[in-house]
Design goal:
Protein name: DUF4013 domain-containing protein
Pfam families: DUF4013
Helix content: over 70%
Mean pLDDT: 92
Order of helices and strands: HHEHHHHHHH
Largest sheet: none
Number of domains: 1
Distance between the termini: 30 Å
Keywords: Membrane, Transmembrane, Transmembrane helix
């Protein structure tokens, strides 16, 4: 079981936590530098560090590189679902459009089949998105453990094996994260009441949204890193990409 309390509280132990979170919440810095910043905490947890610490904002080049790589890894893993979404939407909406225009060249049965087929393809895309989405944290861990070599994210056999070696904790961590996100989301709904104040309220809510969003990444990344660490025992060999 991951140490949820540690993930929720470590950032506030830093003397400069307010400044560090404000920097990470600034648009453009978030996500193009902030993801790489949070990745450093992910690696601390992955390496079983006893204490988590907020890094200094002093490696902008490294944070940018890591952020771009994380975005790229996410895109690579979501490419198949995105293609299926596009095909499903094209087939389904194409059928709906033909039905709506009453095209003489399209039979009612054919159009219905096209709409059903489009829906099924889209559903398959959703299934792939869930499965591949669950694989991304372990792929990121394998990437980190292999000296941040991009090829490590394609070691699907290793990644899947590692996931199943800790499957119970792995799925439980996702449930914990979902719970945290729901609680934070409910809190933000209350904060959203300030939107009734014209302009100023909307600005304040946007600022709060960015601050909480970055802080949430600093909670989620170490939870995932700590969980993935269970698949890498002390002295365990890491396959090179």
């Amino acid at each position: 079981m991951v140490d949820v309390k540690r993930a929720l509280t470590y950032s506030f132990k830093d003397d400069n936590w307010i400044v560090k979170i404000i920097i990470g919440a600034i648009p453009f810095i978030n996500p193009f530098f902030s993801l790489g910043y949070a990745f450093q905490v992910f690696k601390q947890a992955l390496d079983n560090k006893a204490e988590l610490t907020m890094p200094e904002w002093d490696d902008w080049g490294g944070y940018f590189k890591s952020s771009i790589m994380i975005i790229l890894i996410y895109f690579v893993y979501m490419l198949i679902p995105l293609v299926l979404y596009a095909i499903g939407a094209l087939v389904g909406f194409g059928g709906a459009w033909l039905m709506g225009t009453g095209s003489e060249g399209a039979s009612g049965t054919g159009v219905t089949i096209a709409m059903i087929l489009g829906g099924l393809i889209y559903f398959v895309g959703v299934v792939f998105a869930v499965i591949l989405g669950l694989m991304i944290p372990m792929a990121l861990a394998n990437y980190a453990k292999n000296g941040e070599r991009f090829g490590a994210i394609f070691q699907l056999g290793v990644i899947i094996k590692n996931i199943f070696s800790i499957i119970g904790d792995y799925l439980l961590t996702f449930l914990v994260i979902i719970g945290i996100v729901i609680v934070v989301g409910l809190a933000m709904m209350i904060v959203a009441l300030i939107n009734i104040i014209p302009i100023l309220g909307q600005l304040l809510f946007f600022i709060a949204y960015m601050l909480v969003g970055f802080w949430l990444s600093l909670v989620i990344f170490p939870l995932l890193g700590e969980t993935c660490a269970g698949a890498y025992g002390a002295g365990k060999a890491v396959k090179k990409a």
